[in-house]
Write a structure and sequence with these properties.
The structure is a homodimer of 465-residue chains. The first copy, chain A, is α+β, with helices and mostly antiparallel strands. Chain A folds into 3 domains: 261 residues, BirA Bifunctional Protein, domain 2; 97 residues, Rossmann fold; 65 residues, Translation Initiation Factor IF3 (2-Layer Sandwich). In chain A, 33% of the residues lie in helices and 28% in strands. Chain A has an 11-stranded mixed sheet with strand order 3-7-8-14-11-10-9-22-25-21-20. In chain A, strands 16-15-17-18-19 form a 5-stranded mixed sheet, with helices on both faces. In chain A, helix 2 crosses helix 6. The radius of gyration of chain A is 25 Å and the shape is globular. Chains A and B meet through strand 2, helix 2, strand 3, strand 5 and helix 5 of A and strand 2, helix 2, strand 3, strand 5 and helix 5 of B.
């Protein structure tokens, strides 16, 4: 398994060997979450809940199916989705009067209810989210977690009195993102998408992109400001202090199971998956090193360490199967367990536990008595090092270019006058995707790489995943 | 709101006033889980996960959509479902070659995969579950949580070497059920369904029924033994120790959001919801009793108690809104918060907190210093009392009858010869549903209530919910 020379094959191989997902389900692109993969996703979901709950969002759950009549109220939105939604047309032996869309995203399910829920300015802000599966009829080649037809994701939806309040929500979303990505050790760029690539119906869209080892950017989520684009067709109004009816300003924020794809791509290596401790289903695996005459003593010591760590809230597994240690090492390396602990007779004599870090292969010992503190410390250090290393890679993946000859397989940064004409020309002639312009403006003084006009605007592009 | 005189109206009123669900979504029977209702459901889900994980089940997540070709492999199964499934026939602008069923239950999604996953007897038992939404095109009148078209539920699926092993799984399921129902304080009967009412494709079905205040039994879940009825059409085989290919024996166990309906119906009273402490989103609400001159002292004491309880893992809310205590009492009573704590100047002077139990109105005080222990103790006692009281009601709801004249609005127990003819006659002539025979046999010596033949078999029936 060579990650750098053949990323695509390596990726599929890891997904299968680490037991994350089974793509043999008889509908292409609808995969089965197998236990280990689903545990990772659920751990990520818990971090999402923690962050959204802490910032005053309420968790709800909206229905899966949306009547065509509701779905079609916002014109840009339906234009963006009608080629990729699934339609329920029959129920039992009857044809339905109104066809139902299988949720591709929940604006059109939620907003008719928002219009009932919101009456007065005192009902605002309304901040809710749900964690559900969403459905897109993908026609491109599918890939586990990255391009699938049933997508696990969260979406938060908010309503505000003014455009500025909605803008503040977007900024809160960036803080939520920052905290989440610290736990997942995933770096990202914030790029305001082009007008022709923004979310259908949005005022603006900020894409959250992370660099894959093949130099391409993977969109792991997005944050949208809708202004009143949806509240007008869905009639979501509040009565202000003067008794006037005003349209609410809305935002949304969503991230999907692509986060699992990002974990694999950003951190994995030729030996397999490398999981950040916060989301690893098993944070430390204990492997007893047995030889004749010491089986009982070593087993007892291993069980003791297991108990200490479990009691301290560490997700630990004692692998006491009757197999060679080497084959156990191999298996847990593929599954990306952050920390391996080995206990043999020599360790017991020295009153230590040997550890091996999955992220950098670093080896050492911690004292048996302080194993809990030692393991906590190492796990924290793994998280920090994985985060720093990933950001370092993300930054080094960006190359500023001044010419379109000999484009490297990286994320490209260049001057763009901002015109739609130059943008389309750039994409078409180079088979590249214009990812947009930095949300946090960058100083630039150069020329548009297409038309050559002087510009202080910079844009990013990469090949599509 | 009078529960006993008009259960149906009372039920709908509680659902709305307690903020459990919003049924104004523009598809009948597909309701929106609002924050408070969804929190209750998520708490129940966590108990389910705890029990299933502890008994060696792995959580997975299977796709929502099932190809018609897979769905139709087991003949009884499809006969039982084809009048009540939703069909996806189009995707984007295309008509699909193979129509897709929106999951009504996951046998036909899972079993093609089981046939790939299971190779040898060492792969058994296979025990998995998922927590998802399922879809039924209900034609009867819908009712929140009890009869809906999008149903939140869990289903566990197991595969075993022998019929006996599968039977042992059924018995483990009863233990899981017992523990779960202790936390939810929901009593139940185990009734083996009649041949014509068992799950389509099952060898036998045990219905889990709880009595509603109107005397009718609500099915809150079911446990099925499939023998090899599905493993044959889905070709799920293992190689035994002698190298022979044998079909696996299967079981399933499922319970749905009807558990929320049961919580409402079993425990609620004329003041509103009454929630068992294990699943209550808020276990204790603190209401400061303020009057002039003591605002700071009372507020500080209330905050102090809130912190103590929260640190001890109790789900506590301090309601310090600027409103009259009476209207706060009213609101938290509707929402069924198990314990109300009141702190006023008099309490502070006596160094106590006043408590009021939601389940029985019991009042008292706990010492301020030991508030945590005191609250823990009261919550445990509430759980136990709610459980005992609910079982008492469940038992008293059953009436043994020997004649079909003047049937009371209760669950009826009577002799049945066991013939299908008498069973159908009984159901048709009395507009009752034959719930089945007790899974744990009961001593009986009497006559079949229909044909009059002597029988030692007893059956149960009630009107449909």
């Amino acid at each position: 398994m060579e990650k750098d020379t053949n990323f695509n094959e390596w990726y599929n191989d890891i997904v299968e060997k680490a037991g994350l997902s089974d793509k043999r389900y008889p509908i292409k692109g609808m995969n089965v979450w197998t236990p280990y993969g689903w545990k990772i996703m659920r751990n990520i979901d818990e971090y999402i809940r923690r962050e959204l709950d802490a910032t005053g969002h309420d968790e709800v759950c909206f229905p899966l199916l949306i009547p065509e009549t509701e779905f079609k109220k916002e014109k840009e939105h339906i234009k963006g989705f009608d080629s990729e939604v699934y339609w329920v047309t029959h129920a039992g032996l009857n044809e339905l009067d109104v066809r139902l869309v299988v949720r591709p995203t929940s604006e059109t399910a939620m907003y008719p209810m928002f219009s009932l829920w919101i009456r007065s300015h005192t009902d605002l802000p309304l901040k809710i989210y749900h964690l559900v599966n969403t459905f897109r009829y993908e026609t491109k080649q599918t890939r586990s977690f990255i391009r699938v037809r049933e997508i696990h994701f969260f979406e938060s939806h908010t309503c505000h009195v003014t455009e500025e309040d909605a803008q503040k929500q977007v900024e809160e979303d960036f803080l939520i993102l920052e905290r989440l990505m610290k736990d997942l050790c995933i770096p990202y760029s914030l790029l305001t998408r082009t007008e022709w690539d923004k979310f259908p119906g949005a005022y603006y869209t900020v894409g959250l992109d992370t660099a894959m080892p093949n130099g391409r950017m993977l969109q792991i989520g997005s944050i949208h400001h809708y202004r009143t684009n949806f509240s007008i067709p869905y009639n979501i109004t509040y009565e202000d202090a003067d008794g006037e009816h005003m349209y609410v300003h809305q935002t949304t924020y969503g991230m999907s199971e692509r986060l699992v794809g990002a974990l694999i791509g950003v951190h994995g290596d030729d030996k397999g998956l490398v999981l950040p401790p916060p989301v690893a289903p098993i944070q430390a695996v204990i492997i007893p090193i047995l030889s004749k005459g010491n089986i009982d003593a070593v087993t007892a010591a291993a069980k003791n360490v297991e108990k200490m760590l479990r009691d301290a809230g560490i997700r630990v597994k004692l692998d006491d199967r009757d197999e060679r240690p080497g084959s156990k090492f191999f298996e847990w390396e593929i599954k990306g367990v952050p920390l391996r602990l080995e206990i043999g007779m020599k360790d017991i004599e020295k009153n230590v536990v040997t550890f091996v870090r999955r992220d950098n292969g670093g080896k050492g010992t911690v004292s048996l008595q302080d194993a809990t503190d030692g393991v906590h410390l190492i796990l924290r250090s793994i998280r920090k090092d994985m985060y720093d290393k990933a950001w370092e890679k993300q930054r080094s993946n960006v190359t500023t270019i001044t010419s379109l000859d000999d484009l490297p397989e990286k994320t490209l940064r260049f001057g763009w006058c901002g015109s739609e004409e130059c943008g389309h020309k750039f994409e078409d002639e180079n088979d590249l995707k214009l990812l947009g312009t930095p949300y946090i403006p960058e100083e630039f003084d150069g020329k548009c790489i297409i038309c050559g006009k002087p510009t202080d605007k910079v844009a990013y592009a990469s090949r599509s995943m």
